């Protein structure tokens, strides 16, 4: 037990360091061995959602801030104490003290022991005020652009664990027997005009172990991912390009909505992530091109597409329910730093659109500057495109946040 628990703790500490260097927790977990991935993910998700409450409690027992490695250890272990049923609080303390003694400094072990022993006698109070929940850079940014009521709603969504959901691909709607086997239930329409059926499950492991998953009948995906396709007119789409496709979730939606025999190119610059795109296509029995190339490197003959999707890298501020680390990675310059990349991808996507075609800009952000603001910048420089409308979803108990904007090429 000590060895397994110690390995989980050490891996979780590496994951925390990984995110503090500006990289996503999802990327770290993708590199984490299966034997501890779920446990590590659980404790870090719990920490990020409740970090302010945990830090406030720890400060009661810390007169002077310890070195960062020690503080990280206190935070991760406190998250285990309060949120992880798989390890008793006393055991979590013992593992942390042993880790400190061996990996940090023997002299700090007594301090860690004293603080965590006191922590096990406490309970975390319920919090409702945004300033007691949201990371300070995010709080200050949102207070500038949203009403107090909106900020309060976003804060409550941040500390709420989302449902595990999956999408039914094509017309593969589960019957009552399948729903029972999957420990699942159908969800009502998550937002107006959503063209797909989603289901909630008590345990995604049942879905991933099912024949339906193997055959491509189910796909793990939040309903907000479907927002972009609600803006497009698929009646004349025979050729489509997704320039930031991996791992293929939105590409699957495009393929399902296009007429049989259409061409879809699902491109992405990451070869590792494109492996997932190919796996997802294989489950559906599809053999669409999946080049691992940035849009500027795509072959010249891939042009004049009826529909091009640019689901661009963004701040991830709309998906914090499932990626709570995103808000802890947010900085004052985060939105500005993404501007050049987002405009570059829009420019490259626009080059591939046929006259009369459609360009879809999509993010999983709720920030106006990188959404409507970015499209306004693009339209000001491209008179050959006109505004085709936009939609914004904010995170709630039914879906994540997302933004989509349709740009029509007139000539």
Features:
single chain, about 400 residues, alpha/beta, N-utilizing Substance Protein B Homolog, Chain A, Rossmann fold, six-stranded mixed beta sheet, four-stranded antiparallel beta sheet, about 15% strand
3D structure, described in words:
With 411 residues, the protein is an alpha/beta fold. It has 3 domains: 2-119, N-utilizing Substance Protein B Homolog, Chain A (Orthogonal Bundle); 164-220; 224-409, 3-Layer(aba) Sandwich (Rossmann fold), CATH 3.40.50. Helices cover 46% and strands 14% of the residues. It has 17 helices and 10 strands. A 6-stranded mixed beta sheet has the order 6-5-7-8-10-9, with helices on both faces. Strands 2-3-1-4 form a 4-stranded antiparallel beta sheet. Strand 5 (239-242), helix 13 (249-257) and strand 6 (263-266) form a beta-alpha-beta unit. Helix 1 packs across helix 3 and helix 5 runs antiparallel to helix 6. The chain is globular and about 70 Å long. The mean pLDDT is 95.
Could you name the CATH class of the largest domain? Alpha Beta
Overall geometry: globular
Give me the secondary-structure category.
alpha/beta
**Overall CATH architecture of the largest domain:** 3-Layer(aba) Sandwich
Average pLDDT, all residues: 95
Q: Approximately what portion of the residues adopt beta-strand conformation?
A: 5-15%
């Amino acid at each position: 037990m000590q060895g397994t628990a110690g390995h989980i703790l050490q891996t979780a500490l590496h994951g925390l360091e990984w995110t503090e260097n500006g990289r996503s927790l999802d990327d770290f977990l993708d590199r984490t061995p299966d034997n501890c991935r779920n446990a590590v993910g659980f404790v870090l998700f719990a920490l990020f959602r409740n970090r302010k409450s945990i830090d406030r409690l720890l400060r009661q027992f810390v007169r002077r801030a310890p070195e960062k490695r020690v503080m990280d250890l206190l935070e991760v272990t406190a998250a285990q104490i309060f949120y992880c049923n798989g390890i008793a609080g006393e055991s979590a303390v013992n593992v942390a003290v042993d880790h400190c003694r061996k990996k940090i400094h023997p002299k700090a072990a007594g301090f860690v022991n004293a603080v965590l022993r006191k922590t096990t006698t406490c309970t975390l109070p319920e919090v409702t005020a945004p300033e007691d929940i949201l990371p300070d850079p995010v709080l200050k940014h949102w207070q500038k652009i949203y009403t107090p009521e909106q900020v309060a709603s976003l804060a409550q969504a941040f500390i709420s664990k989302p449902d595990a959901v999956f999408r039914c691909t094509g017309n593969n709607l589960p019957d009552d027997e399948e729903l029972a086997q999957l420990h699942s239930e159908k969800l009502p329409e998550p937002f107006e005009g959503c063209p797909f059926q989603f289901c909630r499950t008590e345990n995604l492991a049942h879905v991933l172990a099912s024949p339906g998953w193997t055959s491509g009948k189910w796909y793990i995906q939040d309903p907000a991912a479907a927002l972009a396709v609600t803006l497009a007119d698929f009646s004349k789409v025979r050729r489509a390009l997704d320039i930031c496709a991996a791992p293929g979730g939105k590409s699957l939606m495009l393929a399902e909505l296009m007429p049989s025999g259409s061409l879809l190119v699902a491109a992405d610059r990451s070869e590792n992530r494109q492996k997932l795109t190919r796996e997802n296509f294989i489950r559906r029995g599809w053999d669409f091109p999946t080049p691992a190339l940035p849009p500027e490197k795509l072959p010249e003959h891939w042009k004049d597409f009826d529909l091009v999707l640019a689901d661009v890298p963004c701040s991830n501020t709309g998906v914090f329910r499932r990626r709570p680390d995103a808000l802890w990675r947010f900085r004052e310059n985060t939105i500005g730093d993404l501007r050049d990349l987002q405009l570059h991808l829009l420019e490259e996507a626009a080059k591939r659109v046929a006259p009369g075609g459609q360009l879809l800009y999509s993010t999983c952000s709720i920030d106006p500057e990188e959404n409507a603001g970015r499209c306004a910048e693009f339209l000001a420089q491209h008179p050959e495109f006109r505004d085709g409308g936009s939609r914004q979803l904010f995170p709630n108990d039914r879906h994540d946040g997302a933004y989509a904007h349709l740009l029509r090429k007139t000539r």
